[in-house]
Specification:
With about 230 residues, the chain is mainly alpha-helical. The protein has eleven helices and no strands.
Length: about 230
């Protein structure tokens, strides 16, 4: 496929398949702890995707793929302690998704990815000790996800992302000495999860494994949700 892409640079499907395969392999390397290989894979995939986005600026899917690639590499940099580089990548991803969400306001997935990019940036800013900026990023993401959840109440993924964002905000408030705000955010996250449980749409694996809910797992009401899912 790489040979076909090189031989036919004006044929985007070949190049797109190459970039998608490289990015997918890089994500697999992350999941198996092969971080150096993941770094190289993301860079190779991004190089192809960046050219696709430039050569075919009207193809929104290439911009989305590029944003996702930047976000993936940003998360890898964060995992490996390269926080300044992580911030650079996450800002690139967010800028692309903000433009896509503005250009295609009727495509909910662009708005969701924009919001999750804001949340990821907030998590990085927490790691950098820039808590006021982190709170602002969390609140921007929350606002976008709240809008999606209100417009599409039957989509479980939006409510789960909203619960995650509230849980992360609660953790930030706890760590910065704002117990009242932390309690409100935690209660908001729990209310969403309880609502999902009442409709039978609360995934058990989210409760067990999602690191966003790490602190919330100490809450008796959360533990009740978890026990009921066993």
């Amino acid at each position: 496929m790489e040979a076909l892409a090189a031989a036919s640079p004006a044929t985007p499907p070949y190049r797109e398949k190459v970039s998608r395969a490289q990015l997918a392999l890089a994500r697999l390397h992350v999941s198996t702890g092969r971080l150096q290989e993941a770094d190289a894979g993301f860079r190779k995939g991004l190089e192809v995707t960046e050219k696709l986005a430039v050569d075919f600026p009207t193809r929104a899917e290439y911009r989305e793929q590029l944003a996702n690639g930047y976000a993936n590499l940003g998360q890898l940099f964060r995992m490996t302690g390269r926080l300044a580089e992580s911030e650079q990548m996450l800002h690139k991803a967010l800028a692309l998704m903000q433009q896509l969400a503005a250009d295609f306001p009727t495509v909910p997935n662009y708005r969701l990815t924009m919001a999750t990019s804001q949340i990821q940036l907030g998590q990085l800013l927490v790691a950098l000790g820039r808590n006021a900026e982190a709170e602002a990023a969390y609140r921007q993401g929350l606002k976008s996800i709240e809008s999606l959840a209100a417009e599409f109440p039957a989509v479980t993924a939006y409510h789960l992302e909203l619960a995650r964002a509230f849980a992360l905000l609660a953790r930030l408030h706890t760590d910065t000495g704002k117990p009242a705000e932390a309690e409100r955010a935690e209660e908001a996250a729990l209310h969403i999860l309880q609502s999902l449980k009442s409709t039978g749409t609360l995934p058990a694996q989210i409760l067990k494994k999602d690191p966003a809910f790490e602190r919330l797992r100490k809450n008796p009401e959360f533990q009740k949700l978890h026990e009921d899912k066993k």
